[in-house]
Every structure is written in C-alpha cells, then in structure tokens.
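Structure tokens please, single chain.
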Amino acid sequence: MAHTHRDKKKLLTRVRRIGGQVAALERALESDEGDCAQMLVQIAAAKGAMHALMMEVLAGHLSEHVVAAESEAERAQEAGMIMELLTRYAR
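Here you go.
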C-alpha cells in the first residue's frame, strides 16, 4: 500500500477530523444539550467525511493496484476485492 504511506499525512488529517466530529457528537449526546437537528447535521458531516476518506483511499488503490497490475490475474483479484468492498459499503 505505497499510496497510503505516500499520502499518510493527508489521510491522518482526514481521520483526525472525523475523530473530532465523532467526539463532538458524543459530547452533545452526553451533555443532553444538543438538539436532534444539530446532531443530525453532525452525523451527516461525519458520514460525508468518512465517505471522502474512503473515496481517496479507493482512488489510490485503483490507480496503484488495479490499473498498474502486472498481470491479468492480479488485476482480476484486485477488482474482485473492490467489488466485495463496494458490496459491503452499499449495505
């Protein structure tokens, strides 16, 4: 996974932002001060951030492990893994 090592700083920034969004949601729930509309906005923001992180890692995976695969067998294996991942993600 050379692309994750190369993009480590950018990916960690995204992950930490998501962590902050989830922590804010947790604090709002624990304090009983947040209303449901605000919580829904926070949940949507965290989901969007997680989706953006997944798309960034997936794009790197596609370019480095599928497009640049050395053999058809390797390409087929990587494509199968991505199809399995997308099936889980779509649930």
